[in-house]
C-alpha cells in the first residue's frame, strides 16, 4: 500500500463529496436534527435523553456512512470509473483505505457538529469528555464505511445496496444493548451480540457516560471496533470487482 496514492484517493473523494450538497447535508445536518428530535421526545423524562442521545452519537454516523459509502462505491463501479482507476498504479487496498480516510475526515466533522449540538445546545450531560465521544463516533463511522464498501461488492444496483441495511445494520442496532440490556437477552442472542462490532462501540460510549476518565474497557472496545474495521476493509479489497455486469 502506498501512502501517497492513498492520500491522493482520499483527496479525490473529498473533492467529489464537497460538490454533492445533499450528501453533505445528510452527513453534517441530519444527525444534529435527529438529536433535536430525540430531545423533544424525551423532554422531562429525566436522564433518558442523556442515555439515548449518547448512544445515538455513535449509531447515526455508523448508519449514515454505511449507506452513503455503499452507494458511492457502487456508482463508481457501474459507471466504469473504478475500472479506469484500477488500470493505473492505484491498488484495491489504496482505493479502499483512501475511501476510509476521506469519510473518516468527514465523520470527524460530522461527529464534532453533532456532539457540539448535543452538549451545548441540547444540554447533554456525561461524566466523560465530549472529545472521547467524538473519537468513538469517528471510529464507528469508519466501521460503517468499511462495511458499506464490503457489502457494495455484492450489489448490482443502488436498490440492492440499500437492501443490505436491514441485513447488516438493523440486527446490530437491535442486539447492541440499546433496547434491551445484553445480560437480559437469551443466551444465543447474547452470543451473537458478542460477535457484532457495534456492540462494542455502544459499550464504549456507555463507559464515557458513567466514568469521568477513560476506562480500560472503553479502550478495549475501541480497539475491537478498529480491528473489525480493518478486517472489513481487507475483505472489501478481496471481493472488490472492477465493474458490475
UniProtKB/TrEMBL annotation:
Chain ranges of the ABC transmembrane type-2 domain: 22-243
Chief subcellular location: membrane
Source organism, top-level taxon: Bacteria
Record-annotated membrane-spanning stretches: 24-42, 54-74, 95-122, 128-150, 162-181, 222-240
InterPro entries registered for this protein in UniProt: ABC-2_transporter_component (IPR051449), ABC2_TM (IPR013525), ABC2_TM_bact-type (IPR047817), ABC_2_transport (IPR000412)
Subcellular location: Cell membrane
Keyword list, A-Z: Antibiotic resistance, Cell membrane, Membrane, Transmembrane, Transmembrane helix, Transport
Membrane topology: Multi-pass membrane protein
Protein's UniProt name: Transport permease protein
Natural source organism: Paractinoplanes lichenicola
